[in-house]
Design brief:
This protein is 70% helix and 0% strand. The chain is mainly alpha-helical. α1 packs parallel to α4, α2 packs antiparallel against α8 and α7 packs antiparallel against α8.
């Protein structure tokens, strides 16, 4: 890793940390990015020497910690513990997902709340014709995110 690129690893760590602080389930969004950019990641992996890889990994973890640290301090101050479950009375009901409600409810279903997602359906179909493996992975990711979110409070 060249010194000019060290800042990018730190920034990526901060972005990962903020993603988790804002909504812990958002960590799921980084998995398809890794899969869809596996060629680029493989290239980076091959170009980094072991020392550079270690430095990049430490910078990534440091950035993540910098982003999460204020939240940990607040929980310690407010609840007496560094990690606190702040959603009292709220839970995931994994055996009873409300997928149809999550997708189509007029009062806040994902497709009505974010109308541009209607355009994703024909785009996904076009992608399926071009590369079924990648489209399948994106569909699996979309379904996984939908499942997790539809299990909340259901």
């Amino acid at each position: 890793v060249s010194q000019s690129r060290y800042g990018w690893w730190l920034l990526l760590g901060v972005m990962l940390g903020l993603t988790v602080v804002i909504r812990p389930t958002n960590i799921m969004f980084f998995f398809p990015l890794g899969w869809l950019h596996k060629k680029e990641i493989g290239l980076i992996w091959r170009r980094l020497k072991p020392q550079g890889l270690a430095i990049a990994f430490l910078l990534l973890l440091s950035g993540c910690f910098l982003a999460v640290f204020p939240q940990l301090m607040y929980w310690k101050y407010a609840f007496g513990h560094f990690i606190s479950y702040s959603y009292t009375g709220e839970y995931f009901n994994w055996s009873n997902p409300a997928l149809l409600y999550f997708w189509f409810a007029v009062s806040g279903g994902m497709l009505w709340y974010i109308p541009i997602l209607w355009l994703a359906l024909p785009a996904w179909w076009h992608w399926w014709k071009r590369d079924p493996k990648e489209a399948g992975i994106l569909f699996l990711f979309y379904f996984s995110v939908s499942y997790v979110n539809s299990c909340w409070w259901s």
